[in-house]
Structure formats: structure tokens, C-alpha cells
Amino acid sequence: MSVFLDGARIVGVHTTAVGRSLHPRTGFSLALESLLGALDDAGMTIGEVDCVYASTSGWPAGSPPFPEAFWAKQIGRPLRWGGSMFGIPAVLDAAAAITAGLIDTAAVVVGNCRVPDAGATAVWTRPEHEFTAWSGSFTSVQYGLAAQRYIHEYGDKALHAMGRASATIRNYGSIHPGAIYEGRGPFTAADVLASRPIASPLTLLMCSAVNDGGHALIMTRTDRAADTPKAPISVLAGANQRPYPSYFEAPVLDAVPNEGAFVTEAMRRAGITHQDIDVVQLYDHFAIGVLMEFEMYGFCKPGEAADFVESGVMELNGRYPTCTDGGLQSYSHNGKPSLYRVIEGVRQLRNEVPDRCPNWADGEHSHTDGVCRAVRDARTAFVTNPGPPTGGGAFAVLRRS
């Protein structure tokens, strides 16, 4: 375990209901619901929180100049740390701050609720930027370009592998109660490839399902975690690399030489390898992202992801069950869903996995495809966030303590 992270544990998580539109609720109200739910899950009170990392849509507009002061007023006590960071970078920062003794308990909070909009594309995928707006370069177009380049480099088999990756993820979502795609499916790679075109070669079922929702995570000192009701979750390793401007420049496949080196080095320092991983939660915003992330994060070599996916590694009983909640494509994508990957990792490690198994609430699972989505005896989870269409990202390795 990294000595910079080993003084902290994840002790509470919560997700609100998700939906295509939760209006007239606000992102802030969803964030507050998530915060209180995560504290309840941890058996802790709001008075114990002395750090908040928050990202909300709507009011308060944008990021306040001093977000920790804003949240201090909401919580009713001074905060010693915080900001508008979210996802895995916030989790790593909180773990380091707790380990260093700067804070005792941190909350990472996200809430997004869109105002009804006539456009067919989510507002936050339409960057008003001089280098992209003129070409209509929505996020899906940029990933479509990356997918075309990948197929050109490595062959048509990559397209079918993208279809299989999306089908696998969506089939997890179809048996996840409350997921956007609950009850839809099962899907095959052929179903995915035959769905409506969005940005060639990407089809509708290769893209995220955009919706509203909130989620939160609580992290605290190791000694305090020992008194909480759920199994504490350690952060064994993690790193963040952002070498390329997000979404505002043309996507390329070779922006960062040896771009996975930051993963290899962080895991080496923690004394772990990919063979120690039981479950993987990739940031599956688009099907091509799944293939590229498997390569960047070191699960296979460049150009090998298509064969890797086609071998069945992502399936429930495969080597690396992946995006087991249905991912961004089938469970939830609400603008800043980076924390969903961490929360699903935590729930798998705790064996708190709702599915179609009759006694899932008691932790009893059949581990049968199409019915169950709980990974057998999962102890270590690899969770990720993205960079831009190519170049960088963030990851963490979680372990059940």
C-alpha cells in the first residue's frame, strides 16, 4: 500500500435515484441527499465532516470562489480542506490529506440535474470553443474519430470488440435495479452494432446514457473507520495524469509517449500487479474508451484490446469483470459521474450488489450470467476516470480491509 494513502478508509457511499430528467430537483439538492445518505451508510454525522469536495449543477452557479466556505455554511461548521475537485482525483487527494493529518473526514459529493433543453445533445457535450464549435465537434464526434483511427491502426476486429464490450456492460445494467437501462436487453454485439448511428463508427448503444442523479462517498481516518458498521475500504494505489487538453483539440492516439507509465509506477510502489485485481470499473463513456483504457491502464498491450475483450474477460465469470453496475452506458452518466466507478468498486468489495438473485440483500449470489452481477469473493477493485479522448486519466486500486 502507498504510504501516502494508507491512513484513510472509505466507509460510506450513496447514490440517489437516476433518471432521464429529475427536474424540478436541483443538482444541489441531489448532492445534499447523497451526502446525508453516505453519512448514514458510514454511521457518521455531518458534524464529523471537515472537508468537502463538491460538484453540482445549477445553484450555486459555477464553482464558488471558496467552495469549502460555501459548504461550511451548509454543514454548519468550519472546513479545513476542500474544493470543486471530483471523482478519483478527489478521492486520492482526500486520502493523502487524511494520512498527513490535515483532516479527519472527507466527503466527495456530486449532484447534477439538467434544466429541460430542446437540444438532442446534453449541454455539457457542446463545448463553445473556437477550435471545436466550427466543426460540430461534439464529444461523440471526437470519440468517433478516435474509434476510426483505432480501427485503421488495428483492424476491423476492433469494431466487433467495441460491440461486445458495450453489450456486456449493458447486460449488467439490464439486471441492475434502478439503472437507466434496467429491464432492457439482453444485448448482443450485433444488436449494438445495428443500433442507430451517432458518430461513425459509434452507434447509439456504444454511447453513454445521459441522465440526472447524485452520488457521494465518505472517507475517514483508519482508527475512526474501525468503529463504522461496514467493511472499510483501503486505497492501495492511485495516480492522475492529465497531459492533454480535454475535448478542445483534435483527438489523437499518440499524444503521450508511454502514457501508461504512471500506472505501472504507482502500482509498483504499492507492491501490487494486475494479477491482484478481481474487478474492473472502467470509465465507459464510449465503446472505444473501453478498449483504449484496457491498453493505457496496462491490462493488455497496445493493439491487443480487441482480442482481450473478445476472450470474455469482461464477463461476470471472466478474468476481469468490468463495469458491473452497467457503467455509464447503461446505469448512469450525469455529467460528472466519475465517482460512480469508485462507488461500484466499493459495493462489489462489500458484496452489496442488487441484482436478480432472490437473496442478494443478504449477500447471497448465484454468480450466474443474466441473473447475477456480483463478482465472486471480490477483494481488490481497479477503478478509473478518463482524460480527453486520448491521453491520460486517473485510477485507484481499492481493497476490502
Structural key phrases:
single chain, 401 residues, alpha/beta, nine-stranded mixed sheet, two-stranded antiparallel sheet, globular
Topology diagram in text:
Elements: E1 8-15, H1 27-42, E2 51-56, H2 67-75, E3 81-83, H3 87-99, E4 105-112, H4 139-154, H5 157-174, H6 189-194, E5 197-199, E6 202-203, E7 213-221, H7 222-225, E8 233-241, H8 261-270, E9 279-281, H9 287-296, H10 305-310, H11 327-331, H12 338-350, E10 380-386, E11 393-400
Parallel strand pairs: 2-3, 2-4, 9-10
Antiparallel strand pairs: 1-7, 1-8, 4-7, 5-6, 8-11, 10-11
Helix pairs in contact: 5-9
Basic shape: globular
What is the C-alpha radius of gyration, as a whole number of Å?
A: 20 Å
Structural class: alpha/beta
What gap, in angstroms, lies between the N and C termini? 12 Å
Oligomer classification: single chain
Helicity range: 25-40%
Q: Compute the number of helices.
A: 12
